[in-house]
Amino acid sequence: MQITFLGAAQTVTGSCHLVETADKKIMVDCGMFQGPRVIRERNYEPFAVTPQSVDYLLLTHAHIDHSGQIPRLFKHGFEGRALATDASVDLLEVMLPDSGHIQEMEVERLNRKARRAGKKLFTPIYTAEDGYECVKNFERVRYNQIIALDEDISVRFVDAGHILGSSILEMWIREGGNTTKLVFTGDLGSPGKPYVHDPTIIEEADYLVIESTYGNRLHKDNDQNRSDKLAEVIKETYQKGGNLIIPAFAVERTQDLLYDINQLVLADKLPPVKVYIDSPMAVAVTEVFRRHPELFDIETSKLIMAGENPLTMPELHFSRTTDESRMLNALPGGAIILSASGMCDAGRIKHHLKHNLWRPECTVLFVGYQAPGTKGHHLLNGATSIRIHGEEVAVKADIRRIDAYSSHADQQGLLDWVSKFKNKPRRVFLVHGEPEGMKTMAGLMQEKLGLEAYAPQWQETVNLTPGAVLTTEDLLSAYQEIAVKMEIFASSAPARSELERVMKRIREINGILDKTSQAG
Ligand SMILES: [Zn+2]
Ligand SMILES: [Zn+2]
């Protein structure tokens, strides 16, 4: 059995991992590469595996960096089974056609230039139609059910607490009489978020593939001061007479912010602001949220029962059409505008930045991860001007950030989650992170949890040895070794380190015995 890291290796985006047994190929996620051009260009390269040869596609969650290449996989011949949770499939129905539309727009722009230059025309990697069509092939699964894909491969999707429908994937593979358990965290949530539950604890794995977006960072703000900070930024901007622009991912982040704004309105802590959601996708995604109250955590469920649904509060205005969006450009102040993309590289947010960034009375508030190379990253790092739609715009607005909205576990959150394993993974693969963060995380896992963690390279293949294989000979020779070392220890004190090595071996064997007896 082997695993190949086809994306999110030494980088955050493009999640895609391929597990191969003697006769089956299982793909976990098939995401779009985002960020700097050298990374984005990977989206246009042929798939490293023939799509026809893939038997199963398992999707952890709907975010484009995990799902954005799925229409292309289908277009190039994938005809295996595709599985995702019910809510993930609902979100894909919104997100994949939107992603296809962006591809078409992008190619149209390139072709205008190409036509003028008499050059060869480009075709989009997939269209809105491709995005729409491929979702129909998905099987909708429920959390916590063990699904036998065939005689030898079973999977279970459990709540990852990251976004609506997000899952950690548990996978059991039987090969040569041994069962090996692989766990893929997908993106791991941070506890205490609105709507979603806290991430499910997993206690056992042979191999763990874990995200490490915040491998070397801690969220500075916690959930208690999150809404106080938000109230402060809203009030300050209101007093200055400007608008508050919040670049927010359409999925989860926008709805999380609405939750807090609603709480603040109910507690009478806000000036009379108007809230605008200016992103057709955020509007559609909010609709999907409304359809899935069964997935909400207890606090949100209570609010809805009390008739105070944060997704339908009266101060909230949705702008769907471009005309409605354009009208917001004329607003002098008193508005909170939530718009996408979250990293300011595409979509309507660029218009709002153009109209507000140069005004000192306005504020731009960042509430999410900004990948290096994006406009959001430049703004957070003190850019004094940025180019929007070919125009230089001065940065005079107040640039702020609140960390606590991140839907990713931070460094401590990741370590806490991994520390809950009772049977430690034999090997941990770090993915979905920047190289620096993964290096830090690997060191901490080794030092604090005694785990061997490794950050694979892009397209690297690693052989996985099958689950516990233990013979009587193994046991006997290990115990004989112990007996001999104990004697050495008794006669020579400096052999302490040698004894420690042997004791470690005993613990390993005990671990394996535990596992074998549980399996039996
Ligand atoms: Zn995600
Ligand atoms: Zn991700």
Strand and helix map with partners:
Blueprint: E1 2-7, E2 16-20, E3 25-28, H1 37-40, E4 56-58, H2 64-67, H3 70-75, E5 81-85, H4 86-116, H5 128-135, E6 138-141, E7 146-148, E8 153-159, E9 167-175, E10 178-184, E11 207-211, H6 223-240, E12 244-247, H7 253-266, E13 274-278, H8 280-291, H9 298-305, E14 316-318, H10 322-328, E15 335-339, H11 349-356, E16 363-366, H12 375-380, E17 385-388, E18 391-394, E19 398-401, H13 411-419, E20 427-431, H14 435-449, E21 453-454, E22 461-463, H15 472-491, H16 496-519
Parallel strand pairs: 3-4, 4-5, 5-6, 10-11, 11-20, 12-15, 12-16, 13-14, 13-15, 16-19, 20-21
Antiparallel strand pairs: 1-2, 1-22, 2-3, 7-8, 8-9, 9-10, 17-18
Bound molecules: zinc ion (ZN) (2 copies).
Structure description:
The protein is α/β, with parallel strands linked by helices and 520 residues long. The chain has helices at residues 37-40, 64-67, 70-75, 86-116, 128-135, 223-240, 253-266, 280-291, 298-305, 322-328, 349-356, 375-380, 411-419, 435-449, 472-491, 496-519; strands at 2-7, 16-20, 25-28, 56-58, 81-85, 138-141, 146-148, 153-159, 167-175, 178-184, 207-211, 244-247, 274-278, 316-318, 335-339, 363-366, 385-388, 391-394, 398-401, 427-431, 453-454, 461-463. The protein has three domains: 2-217 and 407-461, Ribonuclease Z/Hydroxyacylglutathione hydrolase-like (Metallo-beta-lactamase, Chain A), CATH 3.60.15; 223-405, Rossmann fold (3-Layer(aba) Sandwich); 472-519. Helix content is 37%, strand content 19%. Strands 6-5-4-3-2-1-22 form a seven-stranded mixed sheet. Strands 7-8-9-10-11-20-21 form a seven-stranded mixed sheet, covered by helices on one side. A six-stranded parallel sheet has the order 14-13-15-12-16-19. Helix 4 packs antiparallel against helix 5 and helix 15 (472-491) runs antiparallel to helix 16. The longest helix has 31 residues, at 86-116. The protein is globular, with a radius of gyration of 25 Å. The two termini are 23 Å apart. The protein binds zinc ion (2 copies). One zinc ion (ZN) binds at residues 61, 63, 162, 187. One zinc ion is lined by residues 15, 63, 65-66, 187, 432.
